[in-house]
């Protein structure tokens, strides 16, 4: 027993923390050897002295209040967790940030407090460095967000002009077969550059941490209807059967990211399937909603399944044309990570591939809580020739190319470079006219702001098409559904533009 007591006394004396015992009057009754190193006082110099000796004078008044409060409720506690900027003072007057652990006890009917004290200078320095690093990282992410938004918009602008000029040239060369072939080759090159730019910007934005998912309620039926309209032309061109399940589920997700995930999976399936089908199905399990994109395409060798989500990795043509740079599934990986989904792939070489996306069950929303989306089907007829279109676009090249293309399609197209220049056109806008505007205009008002003002002035839902080189940012700026309004990404596909005009014309 005496041996155990001796060991305990040695541990106390040479503890890595300075140990003090203070009575109810605030007088030090015990100090261990470590106090000499920490405070510069020997234990003998400290015993019998008031604890205030070790506290900077500017804290004396506050210390008295803390002591009174502590004695009313004496419990073991970490003072540094409750008091910021807690400091102690050495014998030479130098102050240091301190971490103090208090433990009350009684002996012979008298109350005492044991205090374990540690120099927190190094830890505070590390914490300060971590806070600074976090602030710098946050600033860097904000800078990346701004850069990617500007790059997304500015890099797509010239592609938009080239794309529209190419579409106009195809119309003008309809009677010149040899020249028309060259223009078609140019179109393929433009489309390839567009896909590459989109993929590079998307993966950069995702990996930079510049995107925070914005959860909203998304009807799978509505999402599938949009995707069907988007991919049906490409599937029909290859005589593929594109099938979407009759989905009833509604999930809580980021609408833009969720759509992007499915776009990449379906686009990949269509690209690498030459005959047969592409099917999108949904199964509700106990703990998840499972979406499957299955195709009858070329399949993936078993030894390469683990690498297909790597950036810039492609399996190989396998009898199909090589398109893109292998970023589609890397984008799927990053989007799934952001949304908290898991993705798995099963494939048989020469028979097809099935990609399964598991959405956690807690993301499933009861359908009774959500109104069913009922988007009207776009009319199959072409837009009416002669209809007046009012185009607002601040980029000269894009504005001229868009106006040329729409005029060749038979539309009465009026254009303006700024909101100020557009005032006269907008004041005279009549029934049947359609507004087409860039989302990013003068840096103050957006195309959506302008549309809102026009609708207020006209007292009706003026039909409009909003274009943006940064569709994700635009969609996040749109908080609610906007009737009689379509959103298209630059460089806009001419067929999509004409389809949007036709849809708004027939509405």
Backbone CA Rg: 34 Å
| CATH topology (fold) name of the largest domain | Heat Shock Protein 90
End-to-end distance: 94 Å
Question: How would a crystallographer describe the biggest sheet?
Answer: 6 strands, antiparallel
Low-pLDDT residue intervals, each spanning 5 or more residues: 317-325, 372-383
| CATH architectural designation of the largest domain | 2-Layer Sandwich
At the first level of CATH, the class of the largest domain is Alpha Beta
Tell me the structural class.
Answer: alpha/beta
- Work out the strand percent: 15-25%
Mean pLDDT across residues: 80
Show the helix and strand layout:
Layout: H1 2-13, E1 18-23, E2 28-31, H2 34-39, H3 43-46, H4 60-72, E3 77-78, E4 87-89, E5 95-107, E6 110-119, H5 121-172, H6 177-207, E7 215-219, H7 220-237, E8 241-244, E9 250-254, H8 255-271, E10 277-284, E11 288-295, H9 328-339, E12 342-348, E13 352-360, E14 364-365, E15 388-392, H10 396-408, E16 412-416, H11 419-427, E17 434-438, H12 447-458, E18 464-468, H13 471-477, E19 485-489, H14 494-506
Parallel strand pairs: 8-10, 15-16, 15-17, 17-18, 18-19
Antiparallel strand pairs: 1-2, 1-6, 3-5, 4-5, 5-6, 7-9, 9-14, 10-11, 11-13, 12-13
Structure in words:
This protein is of the alpha/beta class. It has three domains: 2-119, Beta-Lactamase; 212-375, Histidine kinase-like ATPase, C-terminal domain (Heat Shock Protein 90, 2-Layer Sandwich), CATH 3.30.565.10; 388-506, Response regulator (Rossmann fold), CATH 3.40.50.2300. The protein has 14 helices and 19 strands. The chain has helices at 2-13, 34-39, 43-46, 60-72, 121-172, 177-207, 220-237, 255-271, 328-339, 396-408, 419-427, 447-458, 471-477, 494-506, and strands at 18-23, 28-31, 77-78, 87-89, 95-107, 110-119, 215-219, 241-244, 250-254, 277-284, 288-295, 342-348, 352-360, 364-365, 388-392, 412-416, 434-438, 464-468, 485-489. Strands 1, 2, 3, 4, 5 and 6 form a six-stranded antiparallel β-sheet that branches. Strands 8-10-11-13-12 form a five-stranded mixed β-sheet. Helix 5 (121-172) packs antiparallel against helix 6 (177-207), helix 7 packs parallel to helix 8 (255-271) and helix 8 packs antiparallel against helix 9 (328-339). The termini are far apart. Mean pLDDT is 80; it is low at 317-325 and 372-383.
């Amino acid at each position: 027993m005496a041996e155990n007591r001796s060991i305990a006394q040695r541990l106390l004396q040479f503890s890595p923390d300075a140990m003090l015992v203070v009575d109810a009057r605030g007088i030090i009754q015990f100090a261990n050897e470590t106090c000499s190193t920490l405070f510069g006082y020997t234990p003998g110099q400290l015993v019998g002295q008031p604890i205030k000796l070790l506290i900077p004078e500017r804290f004396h008044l506050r210390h008295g209040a803390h002591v009174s409060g502590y004695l009313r409720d004496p419990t073991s506690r970490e003072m540094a967790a409750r008091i910021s900027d807690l400091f102690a003072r050495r014998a030479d007057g130098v102050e240091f940030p301190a971490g103090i652990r208090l433990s009350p006890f009684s002996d012979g009917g008298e109350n005492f407090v044991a205090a374990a004290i540690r120099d927190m200078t190094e830890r505070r320095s590390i914490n300060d460095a971590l806070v600074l690093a976090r602030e710098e990282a946050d600033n860097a992410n904000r800078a990346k967000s701004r850069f990617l938004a500007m790059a997304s918009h500015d890099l797509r602008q010239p592609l938009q002009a080239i794309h529209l000029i190419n579409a106009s040239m195809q119309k003008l060369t309809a009677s010149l077969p040899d020249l028309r072939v060259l223009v078609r080759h140019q179109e393929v090159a433009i489309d390839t550059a567009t896909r590459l730019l989109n993929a590079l910007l998307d993966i950069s934005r995702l990996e930079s941490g510049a995107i925070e998912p914005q959860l909203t309620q998304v009807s799978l039926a509505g999402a599938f209807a949009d995707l069907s309209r988007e991919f049906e032309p490409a599937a029909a061109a290859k005589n593929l059967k594109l099938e979407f399940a009759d989905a009833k589920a509604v999930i809580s997700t980021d609408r833009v990211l969720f759509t992007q995930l499915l776009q990449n999976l379906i686009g990949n399936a269509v690209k690498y399937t030459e005959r047969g089908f592409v099917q999108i199905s949904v199964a509700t399990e106990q703990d998840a909603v499972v979406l499957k994109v299955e195709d009858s395409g070329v399949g993936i060798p078993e030894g390469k399944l683990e690498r297909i989500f790597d950036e810039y990795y492609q399996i190989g043509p396998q009898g199909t044309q090589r398109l893109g740079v292998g970023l589609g599934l890397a984008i799927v990986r990053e989007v799934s990570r952001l949304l908290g989904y898991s993705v798995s792939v099963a494939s048989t070489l020469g028979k097809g591939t099935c990609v399964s996306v598991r959405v956690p069950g807690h993301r499933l929303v009861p359908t009774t809580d959500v109104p069913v989306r009922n988007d009207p089907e776009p009319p199959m007829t072409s837009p009416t020739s002669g209809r007046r279109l009012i185009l607002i676009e601040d980029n000269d090249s894009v504005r001229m190319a868009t106006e040329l293309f729409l005029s060749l399609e038979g539309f009465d197209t009026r254009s303006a470079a700024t909101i100020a220049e557009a005032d006269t056109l907008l004041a005279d806008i009549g029934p049947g006219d359609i507004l087409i505007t860039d989302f990013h205009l003068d840096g103050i008002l957006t195309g959506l702001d302008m549309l809102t003002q026009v609708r207020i002035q006209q007292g009706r839902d003026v039909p409009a098409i909003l274009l943006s080189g940064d569709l994700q940012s635009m969609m996040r700026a749109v908080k609610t559904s906007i009737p009689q309004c379509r959103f298209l990404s630059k460089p806009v596909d001419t067929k999509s533009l004409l389809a949007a005009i036709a849809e708004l014309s027939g509405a």
